[in-house]
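Help: why these numbers?

___
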Amino acid sequence: MENEELNNTRVVYPLGDFNFQTIPEIEGKGYSMTLEEKEKLSRHELKWSEDPEGHTVLIPNDPTEENRKNSARARIVELKKLLADTDYQAIKYAEGLITPSEYVSIKAKREMWRKEINDLEKLL
């Protein structure tokens, strides 16, 4: 459940919107962040930490090899979901139920996603 974002303003995201690897163990609380911070967190460019006052904060994550691999793995999962989400159209095209002109943009995206997956897998 995300609030609308305007001009990259800070909004509160329920912590349940993130996977277990990217959030601290805080039950029932939200965290205020920008869309850019949310994207960086999902790419492991930011990490959770605790400031001297005991508040949970986001800080830059050092770009270790493991973090780069985690980021690549996370992106592969996203890309495979995009492929799965368009499988229905691919099957309809293969069965002749949609025309080549209806499928051309989906096909181009799927090719791009598969290429990106292959490139990312080389990094692992």
Summary: Residues 1-27 have pLDDT under 50 and may be disordered. Residues 65-123 form one domain. The radius of gyration is 19 Å.
